[in-house]
Structure formats: C-alpha cells, structure tokens
Design goal:
351 residues, two-stranded antiparallel sheet, single chain, mainly alpha
Length: 351
Amino acid sequence: MNLDAKAHHPPDSFFRTLDSSVKKNSVFVKKLSSLTEQNRTKLVADLNSLNLTKYIEEVVNAICSAKLKMQDMNCAIHLCSLLHRRYSDFSQLLLKTLQSALSNLNKEDKVTRVRIELRLLGQMLVLGIITDQKEGFTLLHTTLCKIVESDKDRLEFLPAMVSFVKHCGEDILGVQSTKNRQLIEQHNITVPAMKILAKDKQQIFAGLLKEYSSAVILTLVKLHNKLMKCLKHNKKTLLVKGEVSAEKIELSEKLSAQHSKLLMNATTLAELLDITIPDLPSLQQLEDEEMDCNSPTNANADMSEVSLWEDEDQKTFYRDILDLTGRVPQILYKKEKSTDCDSALIPLLFL
C-alpha cells in the first residue's frame, strides 16, 4: 500500500469532511512529540479524524524529534505509513527532515538520536514510505560512511549500528543472521527476499557494516587481553602480598564493565552479520595453558613479576647491605678467630 500510495491519495473533497480545528490539530502535534506505543490507538483515531494538510511539516518535525524508545518505534512507523498514504507531501518532508538531522553526528544526545534516526530512515526506505529511493539510499550510505570512518576507535554508535542491522539487515544488506542461515540450511528451504536494492548495491552496504564490525572485534580482543592481564596481576599480587590496592580493584571492575557491554553488542552484531568472533579465553583457561607449557623455573620467574617491594627505596633498604668496615672506625671492631669460618669483623657495639 505504501508503494502505490501516490495513486490512492484522497481528493480535496475528502479533507473537507475532517476536523480542521486549529486547537485540535495543535494538540495532536504536541502529542506526537511524546508518542508511545501505549497511546497508539488514540493517536491513530485522532489522525483519522483530523485534517492535517496545513500541519504536515509540524507533524514530521514532531515525529523526528520525539524522544522515542525502541519499543515506541513501531508506533512511529505505523503513523508515518498512515500519513504517507493520506498526504502527498509527507514523504518528501520526512526525507528532508532526516537529511538535516543526520547531517550532524555530534549533536546533543547524539547516540540516542542517531540510533532512532538511522533506524527510522532504514525502515522508511524498506517500507516504501520514502519514495525518492535514490536520494534516500544516498543519505543512508553517506551516514554509514561517516560513522564507520569516525567511530572505529570510540564505538559510540555501536548500539545504533546494531539496531539498524537488526531491523534492516536482510533487506538492505542482503545478509542472513547466523540463526536464520542455519535454520534455512537445516530445513533446506528458500526464503523470498524483498527486492529493495540490487545485489551489488547490497554488497556495498554490507561491506561498510562488516568493516565496522571488524573494528569492533579488534577493540574487543584488545580490551579482553587488557582485562585478563589486570585480573592476572591482581591474583598474583593477592597471593604474594595478601591484598590488592583499591586502585587496582577499581580498574579491574571498570574494565570488566566495559568488556561485558562491548562483548554483548559485538556478539549481537556478529550474529546478525553471520561472522565469527575469535575465542576469548578466560583467566582460568590462560592459567591452565601456562601450567601445561611452563616449567617450574619459568613459573617462579613469572611470579617475580609481582614485586615484594612498594618502591625502589624500600627494595634498596632491605637488599643493599652497607659495608660498615668502610664507614665505622676500626677501633670499634676487634678481630676474632673462628674454627668454622674465616675471621670476621664483629662490631663491638653488638657484643
């Protein structure tokens, strides 16, 4: 219905039968700014009863700027579909608004906003609500390129990319998730795909997301190694000294929280793109491997990595014994013979 909406837009006479009240239309636009899934039924009823011809631009701005949660997206998409079928200028105004919104990735609350806008753009293209497909997919490609190039190190937009692939991956990227691919292979069936883009165009979009996922996996491996090194050091310090400093504990907890969050998103993205994450051995596995490979001598040498001393001054105080014979007058010493060892200088002070 969205694809042929242009041919079925109602005539002007239809809109004259609807409520054109300024007050009611203004209230409806205000409601759109805080739309939720819970009030979908009421919003749809209001939309169907109002003549929004003079308010379409305000309607589009309200939807695109609404502080939507992921569970509210289906409501927003449903309303966009209804508006597209009724108002001929809705599609173009929606694309224009999204172009303006996605032109700046450094805006306030950027992570949440880009997550909503990117998914909205993708699903509007898939559902045919944005009719200027060339302009729409150009905007999508430009936005993804910006994110891939600027976000490989910080991964701020990783949740946005995961959400986009989850809802638009099969149609725009042409990729099956690992789970779906396995089910298709298991049951030997063919799943019909929507012909949104040509195969070569899908590969371009898929290449961008796979490039981004490679950066995500690389960051995950580095963070995992850093966390394992920190945990290993803390464990050895506990064995040698009996306690671990508060700073080291805080560092390990911070790394662990970052690791858990990144691992969750990276695993989801990899599953959606049907790619593999390398094994990430646990601390116990690393220790078991060391026990199998290292000799006792090497194990003892490894333990020496944890210093007994708090600093170099303390180490020097206990290990570098001063030669008192060169610093104390000879009169304070006397020589004694010993049958068991060579003669020794014994300070009279300690006799």
